[in-house]
Input
Amino acid sequence: MAIWLEITRGVAVVNVLLLLVLSFIWFRNYRQHGADHTLALLVFAVFLLVENGLWVFFYLVHSGFIGWFVNAGTDVQIGMTMLCGLELGALAILTRITVR
Output
């Protein structure tokens, strides 16, 4: 089903946007305070940003992966979507706490 691909694409893009917001805030805070904890959060966000950027590439551009995803069973499609959705939930909570 192509619907799961579309949902996963959207969630992956939102994950990238949230990670950009977090990276910007943590970079700004690190420049102001120089705390090791903030640097660790920034590194964490950058690694996740690279990972999610790669997923967005696969979901939007890579025809072999898209073909595999569409032809995979519904259980695989839902599973991949749920993993991406769980990450979205975690990032949404983290972003809300960080922005406040």
